[in-house]
């Protein structure tokens, strides 16, 4: 099959600018003509045959050889492999003839080769390598193939031409990994023996004859050996390894690193070596370490040994176990290095070898040896004991600089050993404790991390056996150390341990502390009693940790269960701790029960592992006591404060989740019975005679403990409240029958006038909607009517809860459309009965009934089939929700408003789903197009339903409807046609005639959304005049209110339709505004153009900034200039909407900021920084109300501290493993904390460093100006004035800008003041600064008598003096040597009876130092005594 030349040689062009390509194309044309002359087809085979024949018969000029070989290399990959194999010997011989003179010893490659010669060698190398790659295994026995391979090997180590060397090296690697070169029957897939011999012999000759001049050749040969070493047989590998190890003694850093890399290749690829070979290699490496001077070689050496042991343990675990300790002993001295690269690499290597090489066999052998020879000091240590001893030696003073890294290694060793670390590492832990309390030790943070790991590994029982708490000793006791600091450490890190230890050790300790506290309190020692109380609470705080996956709870929990129940009843202070512990234990075990373990679990993770079966057993043992704990929690709930009630309810819900169905029904029926009795007794309506403080327990918190003598009257008044609260914990785990009973009970309470009872009832309904979808779907219409009726008359808290219910219902409907077990065959029948439903709707059916059919599936779960009909859902259910939800978007409560906005979007999604269910397939239309059309119709219908709110008589409803419509357009813009948008905009713009600003603002907002969302201008173009006139009208009526909105819209309209068209439509009195906007945009574009071109000056930054800061919110194009013509395609509104062909979504970066702010009643979303490391967690910009009981949810202590610690250790790992202290330390190790504000530091960085004289003048300036009566003392008032003037201007809202303006204001004030004073001086006879600047020769006398003028003049002189202006205070005139006198005024001026000037500024003149000019220095005679005092 013939092809064109461009198809065969796509890289060659006739009109190429390169001379080489032109010459190649000429040769190609000649070859093509020759093919056509022979009447052969134009294909790759023809070119292959003609070029090969030409080269073989030598029928070409010598200077054409490079071009022919280049063409041959281009066509060769396109020729079929059988043809190439048939001519392979001929090709090899021809390439050998070409390359022969370049690889012989007489003439080698050099740097002076011509381009043609380089092209010739590269093409020949490629052709030869390509043919050799295709060679079969039996062909490697022929000398031609081996000779060609040896030629390429020689070229691959050439030290002159890098491109040729790289090309040859690539071909060598391809040949060694080719199919024909690999022997499949050899172990590890070794290379053919002849290839192996040639490669090894070639490399061996280079390595054995290395000189200073041939080190480069050896380096490149090592790169080849790196790829080939793992393919050679063991004998040849051993030969080359001996040569490579000898090369490491040459002290050449790059060569040594290349040697280690070549040896390391054995540990990353399959090779024929066995475990004993690897062990011998490691022993040889131990004997040939690099020099300590070359730290890069040391790092490579450490990495090589680490990889060797990681490979060794996988290849021969038993043999590796006997020698692994040598790795640590050899590399331990690296921690004495001052190079962070070496210490960090060694630390990472130690941790890797610990995790991978210390296996169960090593651990068991070490424990056995430790137990057998505990009393024998001269015995031989096991590998594990040797490793521990070596790592312990890292805490000597020799390695003090690397103690932090050594501590991390010790932590890793404890983690790997787990419970087996006790007692073999007891001495290590005791030594760490001594080091921790040493005053010279500065790594307490790292040491605490080790203690945390030890607690997790060996458990608190063994830990406290080695390091007892000694809470009864004095804090300053040096012998019996008080370790009460361990209690917080244990509280946060105990898990997967024995609960029995808490029962045996801590519980008696807590009882003793309590009794001791009562005793000392009776004796009057209140401080000691308070300390014991704190310790008592700290001991009980350990309980949640012991109940975090307790390993023996099936045996131990029943021992302490009764005591916990008694403590719940008798000690209110322990209720939070005990409830949190019970909740955590149940929830953690349940998570473990349902979580499948990973396939591979490393040894360090197996020590703390609870299987699913074990978690089920532990939960079963705890569930026995749920029937006992629930009544206790019910009884203490009324007498607990609000904080305690939260934990009690969580504990109740957790206990209910593990209670069997029989007991659960019994307890729930009892609770419901009491609730009904309380409701019957107290009623569900709010009683006016009752005290409001006792009616609603959500607003009144009981802070004192109610004793048994408390009367029952207050309990009866609040009984219905707390019984309703207790019911919430049962909702999630009730069956269908109990849910129906509960719903019947709370249904009347949902409409009652008692807000406390109503709120609690709605919380129950939220839980029902969330966890019982089938019940909601069965009673959909009834619940909807209950939620929507009188929604707007409810308080904000109730509205929010009711909206939550509606959201859960909408989500349930969304899930039901995808969940097959909810909608089965009956879903298909719904489409058939839709016509009947429509007929019923036409007959004005007053009630919509919901019928359901329940069947049982094979998994015993009920299937609910909805028979309500999608048409009824679409035409009755959803329209009844929309008005109330739209009004809720204007609520003052932020959460309620956000919930309503979210519901509007969710309803739109449900409308799309319903339309997709009701749509009927059409012939000739794909299903995707059908669904798309259905979605468009659904959103159009949804918007029409919302447009009904535009006819409301209240501005509140009208504006809310417009805002909601804009939100739907913003979200579903892909499903809305531009024709429909045009009609909608036409309708909405009519409301610009409304007198209400709220409505007009919403209209402008909707227009803003439409402009930013749709590219086509037709939707607005027809109503452009109405829109522009409305902007002009409201921009003139209320400039401040609509200033930002009008400016944004005008800018967008100008960019979309062009300035000329907008200018013609604007009224005459408003054209100045449009012109001003155009000028500002032009200035901005000029400034951007200057920045793009590298210039910067000429344009004032304040003029370039938009007054309302809109430019700071938008991101505009930096590639093209903005056009003023209509239909500009480069405006940033169009850039926000990427086309579907580009497979990208709309970019809201420019629009969402202002849209979200003034349209959707929410503040613009700023880029949130990671607040996980903050101790104050706050979302949004609203301030935190610390009087609110929910304020504690914004505070974080432990979590933030943990994350900060993790970040510090992560930085330490990156910084050589060393933890950097953010504070400086003095000689004693104490922190030096400098008081500095970050903003001040930023200012100092931006400010120019002042000279010493400037600092001196500025130090005195403020004092002088304060005495002189300047307005500097009014700086605070001026600052407030600037803030007030710029309150609405985002460009000047920063304090730095205000300070800058204030400083400029003061400078202007001083300069004006100086000018006024100078003017007065002229009128008064030339006194003061004017005379100073004039420099007259005659003495001037003052004629002023006004004291105020004298004071002002003195202040002027002082100001000028501080500023460095020449004045005549004791300054001798150069002409007549007469001294100027100053009028007698108050201040620091020289008086008649004063011999010397009290203050003077004498200008330092560098000309005075010039001896040639003979200038005389300034006289100091009247400033100070000659050679004496001042």
Characterize the quaternary organization of these chains: single chain
Mean pLDDT: 75
> What is the first-to-last residue Cα distance?
110 Å
Given as residue ranges, the uncertain stretches (5+ residues, pLDDT < 50) are: 689-717, 818-867, 1096-1153, 1162-1173, 1235-1279, 1281-1345, 1361-1386, 1426-1430
Which strand-content bin applies to the residues? under 5%
Largest sheet descriptor: 2 strands, antiparallel
Number of helices: 64
Q: Considering DSSP H and I runs of 4 or more, what fraction of the residues is helical?
A: 55-70%
Rg of Cα set: 45 Å
Strand element count: 4
Widest β-sheet, arrangement of strands: 1-2
The gross shape turns out to be extended
Q: Structural class of the secondary structure composition?
A: mainly alpha
Structure description:
The chain is mainly α and 1430 residues long. Helix content is 61%, strand content 1%. It contains 64 helices and four strands. A hairpin with a 5-residue loop joins strand 1 and strand 2. The longest helix has 29 residues. It starts with a helix and ends in a 67-residue tail after the last helix.
């Amino acid at each position: 099959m013939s092809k064109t030349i461009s198809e065969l040689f796509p890289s060659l062009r006739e009109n190429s600018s390169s001379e080489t390509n032109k010459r190649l194309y000429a040769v190609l044309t000649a070859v093509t003509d020759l093919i056509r002359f022979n009447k052969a087809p134009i294909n790759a085979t023809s070119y292959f045959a003609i070029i090969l024949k030409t080269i073989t018969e030598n029928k070409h000029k010598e200077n054409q050889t490079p071009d022919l070989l280049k063409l041959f290399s281009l066509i060769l990959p396109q020729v079929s492999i059988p043809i190439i194999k048939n001519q392979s010997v001929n090709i090899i011989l021809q390439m050998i003839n070409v390359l022969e003179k370049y690889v012989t010893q007489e003439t080698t490659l050099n740097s002076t080769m011509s381009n043609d010669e380089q092209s010739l060698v590269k093409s020949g190398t490629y052709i030869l390598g390509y043919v050799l790659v295709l060679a079969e295994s039996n062909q490697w026995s022929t000398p031609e193939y081996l000779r060609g391979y040896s030629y390429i090997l020689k070229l691959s180590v050439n030290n002159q031409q890098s491109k040729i060397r790289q090309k040859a090296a690539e071909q060598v690697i391809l040949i060694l990994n080719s199919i024909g070169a690999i022997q499949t029957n050899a172990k590890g897939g070794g290379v053919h023996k002849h290839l192996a011999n040639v490669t090894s012999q070639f490399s061996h000759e280079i390595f054995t004859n290395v000189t200073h001049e041939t080190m480069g050749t050896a380096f490149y040969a090592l790169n080849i050996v790196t790829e080939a070493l793992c393919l050679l047989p063991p004998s040849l590998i051993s030969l080359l390894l001996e040569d490579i190890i000898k090369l490491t003694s040459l002290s050449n850093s790059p060569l040594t690193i290349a040697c280690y890399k070549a040896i390391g290749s054995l540990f990353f690829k399959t090779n024929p070596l066995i475990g004993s070979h690897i062990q011998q290699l490691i022993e040889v490496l131990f004997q040939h370490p690099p020099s300590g001077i070359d730290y890069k070689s040391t790092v490579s050496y450490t990495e090589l040994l680490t990889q060797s042991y990681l490979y060794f343990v996988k290849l021969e675990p038993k043999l590796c176990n006997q020698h692994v300790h040598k790795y640590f002993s050899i590399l331990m001295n690296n921690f004495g290095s001052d190079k962070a690269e070496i210490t960090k690499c060694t630390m990472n290597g130690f941790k890797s070898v610990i995790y991978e090489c210390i296996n169960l066999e090593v651990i068991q052998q070490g424990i056995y040896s430790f137990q057998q020879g505990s009393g024998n000091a001269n015995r031989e240590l096991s590998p594990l004991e040797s490793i521990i001893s070596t790592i312990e030696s890292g805490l000597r003073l020799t390695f003090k600089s690397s103690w932090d890294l050594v501590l991390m290694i010790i932590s890793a060793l404890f983690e790997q050993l787990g419970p087996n670390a006790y007692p073999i590492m007891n001495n290590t832990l005791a030594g760490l404790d001594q080091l921790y309390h040493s005053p010279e030790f500065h790594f307490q943070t790292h040491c605490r991390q080790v203690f945390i790991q030890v607690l997790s590994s060996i458990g608190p029982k063994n830990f406290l056996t080695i390091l007892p708490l000694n809470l009864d000793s004095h804090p300053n006791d040096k012998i019996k150390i008080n370790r009460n600091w361990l209690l917080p450490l244990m509280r946060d890190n105990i898990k997967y341990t024995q609960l029995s230890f808490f029962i045996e050790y801590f519980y008696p300790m807590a009882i003793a502390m309590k009794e001791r506290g009562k005793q000392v309190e009776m004796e009057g020692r209140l401080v000691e009693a308070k300390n014991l109380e704190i310790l008592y609470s700290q001991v009980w705080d350990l309980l949640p940790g012991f109940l975090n996956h307790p390993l023996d709870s099936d045996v131990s929990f029943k021992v302490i269960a009764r005591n916990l129940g008694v403590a719940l009843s008798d000690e209110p202070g322990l209720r939070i701790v005990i409830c949190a512990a019970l909740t955590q234990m149940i929830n953690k075990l349940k998570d473990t029960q349902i979580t499948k373990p990973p396939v591979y679990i490393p040894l360090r993770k197996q020590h703390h592992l609870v299987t699913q079966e074990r978690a089920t057993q532990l939960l079963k043992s705890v569930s026995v006591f749920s029937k006992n704990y629930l009544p206790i929690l019910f009884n203490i709930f009324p007498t607990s404060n609000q904080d305690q009630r939260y934990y009690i309810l969580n504990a109740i819900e957790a206990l209910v989740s593990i209670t069997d169905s029989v007991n659960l029904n019994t307890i729930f029926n009892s609770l419901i019975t009491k609730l009904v009795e309380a409701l019957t007794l107290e009623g569900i309506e709010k009683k006016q005679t009752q005290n409001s403080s006792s009616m609603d327990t959500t607003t009144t918190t009981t802070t004192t403990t109610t004793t048994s003598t408390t009367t029952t009257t207050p309990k009866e008044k609040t009984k219905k409240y707390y019984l309703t609260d207790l019911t919430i914990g049962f909702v999630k785990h009730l069956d269908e029958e109990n849910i129906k009973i509960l719903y019947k009970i709370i249904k009347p309470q949902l409409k009652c006038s008692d807000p406390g009872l109503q709120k609690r009832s709605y919380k129950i309904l939220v839980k029902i909607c969330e966890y019982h979808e089938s019940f909601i779907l069965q009673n959909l219409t009834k619940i909807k009517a209950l939620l929507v009726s009188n929604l707007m008359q409810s308080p904000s808290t109730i509205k929010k809860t009711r909206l939550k219910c509606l959201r859960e219902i909408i989500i349930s409907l969304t899930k039901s459309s995808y969940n097959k077990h909810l909608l089965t065959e009956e879903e298909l029948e719904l489409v058939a009965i839709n016509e009947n439903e429509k007929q019923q709707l036409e007959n004005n059916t007053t009630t919509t009934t919901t019928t359901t059919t329940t069947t049982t599936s094979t998994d015993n779960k009920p299937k609910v089939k909805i028979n309500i009909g999608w048409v009824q859902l679409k035409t009755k259910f959803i329209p009844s929700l929309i008005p109330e939800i739209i009004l809720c978007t204007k609520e003052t409560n932020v959460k309620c408003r956000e919930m309503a906005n979210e519901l509007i979007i969710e309803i739109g999604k449900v409308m799309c789903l319903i339309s997709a269910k009701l749509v009927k397939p059409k012939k000739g239309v794909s299903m995707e197009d059908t669904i798309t059309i259905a979605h468009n119709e659904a959103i159009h219908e949804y918007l029409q339903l919302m447009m009904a709110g535009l006819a409301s008589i209240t501005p509140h409803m009208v504006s809310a409807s417009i805002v909601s419509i804009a939100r739907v357009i913003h979200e579903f813009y892909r499903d809305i046609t531009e024709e429909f948008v045009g009609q909608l905009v036409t309708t909405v713009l009519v409301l610009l005639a409304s007198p209400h600003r709220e409505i007009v603002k919403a209209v402008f907002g909707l227009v803003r959304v439409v402009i930013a969302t749709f590219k086509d201008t037709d939707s607005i173009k027809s109503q452009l005049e109405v829109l522009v006139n409305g902007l002009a009208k409201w921009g003139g009526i209320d400039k401040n209110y609509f200033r930002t909105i009008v400016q944004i819209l005008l800018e967008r309209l100008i960019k979309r339709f062009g300035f000329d068209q907008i200018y013609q439509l604007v009224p005459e009195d408003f054209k100045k505004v449009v012109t001003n906007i155009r000028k500002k945009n032009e200035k901005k574009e000029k400034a951007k153009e200057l920045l793009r071109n590298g210039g910067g000056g000429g344009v004032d930054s304040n003029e370039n900034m938009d007054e309302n800061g809109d430019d700071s919110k938008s991101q505009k194009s930096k590639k093209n200039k903005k056009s003023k013509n209509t239909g500009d395609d480069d405006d940033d509104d169009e850039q926000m909407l990427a086309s579907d062909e580009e497979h990208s979504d709309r970019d809201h970066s420019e629009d969402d900021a202002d849209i979200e702010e003034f349209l959707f009643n929410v503040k613009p979303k700023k880029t949130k920084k990671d607040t996980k490391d903050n101790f104050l967690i706050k979302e949004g910009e609203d301030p935190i109300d610390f009087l609110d009981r929910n304020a504690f949810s914004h505070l974080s202590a432990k979590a933030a501290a943990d994350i900060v610690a993790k970040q510090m250790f992560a930085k330490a790992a990156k910084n050589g493993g060393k933890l950097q202290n953010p504070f400086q330390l003095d000689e004693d190790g104490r922190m030096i904390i400098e008081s500095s504000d970050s903003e001040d530091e930023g200012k100092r960085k931006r400010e120019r460093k002042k000279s010493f004289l400037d600092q001196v003048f500025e130090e005195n300036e403020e004092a002088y100006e304060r005495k002189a009566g300047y307005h500097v003392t009014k700086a605070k008032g001026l600052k407030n004035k600037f803030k007030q003037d710029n309150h609405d201007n985002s460009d000047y809202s920063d304090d730095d800008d205000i300070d800058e303006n204030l400083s400029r204001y003061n400078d202007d004030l001083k300069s004006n003041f100086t000018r006024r004073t100078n003017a007065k001086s002229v009128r008064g006879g030339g006194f003061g600064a004017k005379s100073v600047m004039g420099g007259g020769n005659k003495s001037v006398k003052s004629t002023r008598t006004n004291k105020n003028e004298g004071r002002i003049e003195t202040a002027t002189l002082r100001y000028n003096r501080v500023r460095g202006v020449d004045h005549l205070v004791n300054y001798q005139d150069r002409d007549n040597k007469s001294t100027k006198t100053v009028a007698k005024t108050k201040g620091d001026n020289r008086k008649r009876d004063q011999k010397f000037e009290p203050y003077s500024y004498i200008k330092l003149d560098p000309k005075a130092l010039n001896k040639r000019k003979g200038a005389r220095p300034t006289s100091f005679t009247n400033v100070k005594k000659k050679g004496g005092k001042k």
